[in-house]
Amino acid sequence: MNRADDGGDNVINDLSTNINAALVVVDVQNDFCCAGGYYDRRQHGSSNMELKNPSPSRDWSPRIIRKGDDLEKVVNNISLCMRIAKEREIPVLLLQTIIKPDHKYRNSFLRGEENRGRCYYPCKSDTWGAEIIEPIWQLAEEEAVVVEKHVYNGFVDTSLEEKLLGLGVDTVFIVGVETHICVMATAQSASFLFKTYILEDSVWSANCELAKYALSIFKDGYGYITNHKVLYFVGASHDSP
Question: What residues are paired with 26 via a beta bridge?
Fold first, then answer.
């Protein structure tokens, strides 16, 4: 069953009913997104993988994986999604990965680094790398709910399901990083409980090919693919801006 949509009339008509939606923002954290973060240092072979705060000024600077990288554009779109959500009274939940070596579920980051004979990993508790990037955190203020997770899937051993059900949510919009890993794993589980949309202009992956395949798999068997503009038709009023 192909559930793909491109943000056009079909999606808008589908959402122009009385739905209860939430926006879930996945892993927009310094170690994954920022210059000086874990991914950035690993890519450039830095020996200082334990650097605790490479940006004391806290100014956000996106890491550049390749020429023409679109991470900054995606972060801007995620920021826009959060602004729309606030205007439309759509609750926002921020997923934050915290990797713990002694957690009962072993994170794949740990296995991968151990296989390479290394002991460092991203998003250690109480480090700059684990923090949500500054532009997103500033938008969140006190209204957003932060849900700590320890593996790729935001529903495994977390309070995410409980919080969404407690809000009376029946529809979930998902944005964040990385498309083919944490976004995909979380969206698949969400689709078993809620009508689930991935906003493709507001998700990002360092591997474009895997991201494309992940979105294709998701729309074929789990949920819907659209863009941030549909949020204008959800929430406090169903009138377009």
Answer: 95, 176
Neighbours of 110 (CB within 10 A): 15
Instruction: Please state the domain extents for the chain.
Output: 21-233
Cβ 138 vs Cβ 145: under 8 Å:
no
197, 172 in Cβ contact below 8 A?
A: yes
- Write the pLDDT tens digit of every residue in 215-231: 999 999 999 999 999 99
CA distances from 139 to 85, 96, 129, 167 (A): 11, 15, 19, 20
Q: Name the CA dihedral angle for 12, 15, 21, 25, rounded to a multiple of 10 degrees.
A: -30
**Fold of domain 21-233:** Rossmann fold (3.40.50)
Average pLDDT along the chain:
81
Closest by Cα among 23, 43, 42, 28 to 91:
23
Two structure tokens written together for 167: 């809000």
Residue type, 208: C
- Cα dihedral angle (31, 35, 41, 47), rounded to 10 degrees? -110
Q: Token match 């009339």: residue?
A: 9
96-141 residue pLDDT tens: 999 877 766 666 666 555 555 555 678 888 888 899 998 899 888 7
